[in-house]
């Protein structure tokens, strides 16, 4: 069984209107959320073999906040994931080698939310996770999927959503964030 982890980047700063979107960094809240998500990922023993990350500064900084890993995943920064649609992300995932058991993709909305809704199967998804995912995909949200088919065969509705975790649920963040 393969595993797919979809992580939306943490909250970014909008302080400098002259800064291009691609170069926007995380803000303080985003750094706290990413650090809290790092603890949660470790506590859940989620261990991606491959991390595919958008080349945007905020996604790279989100990834950096998830380090160190208890193992050494392969990391690929990809321009193709910057503001990618769900269809573009599926194309990227279809090229993952079959030897890879767990992939983490770090990207952006609205593509990330669309991808999570597209991959899941409401009849098979964990009900509470699906209901919460239907409401939105907040920054630093993490969707965990199980897949029975090979990466090259990843199609809409072919995965099972098993968990949807948001920063507001994490002990280090609380409901105020």
From TrEMBL:
SMART domains: PGAM (SM00855). Keywords: Hydrolase. It comes from the Bacteria. Its EC number is 3.1.3.-. GO terms for molecular function: hydrolase activity. This is Phosphohistidine phosphatase sixA. It comes from Granulibacter bethesdensis (strain ATCC BAA-1260 / CGDNIH1).
């Amino acid at each position: 069984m393969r595993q797919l982890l979809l992580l939306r980047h943490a909250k970014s700063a909008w302080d400098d209107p002259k800064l291009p979107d691609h170069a926007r960094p995380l803000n303080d809240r985003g750094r706290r959320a990413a650090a809290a998500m790092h603890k949660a990922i470790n506590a859940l023993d989620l261990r991606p073999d491959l991390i595919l990350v958008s080349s945007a500064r905020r996604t790279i900084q989100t990834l950096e906040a998830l380090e160190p890993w208890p193992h050494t995943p392969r990391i690929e920064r990809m321009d193709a994931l910057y503001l990618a649609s769900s269809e573009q992300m599926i194309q990227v995932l279809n090229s993952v080698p079959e030897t890879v058991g767990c992939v983490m993709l770090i990207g952006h909305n609205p593509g990330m939310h669309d991808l999570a809704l597209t991959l899941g199967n409401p009849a098979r998804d964990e009900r509470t996770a699906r209901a919460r995912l239907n409401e939105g995909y907040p920054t630093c949200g993490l969707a965990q999927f199980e897949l029975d088919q090979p990466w090259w065969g990843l199609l809409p509705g072919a995965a099972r959503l098993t968990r949807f975790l948001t920063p507001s649920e994490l002990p280090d963040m609380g409901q105020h964030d």
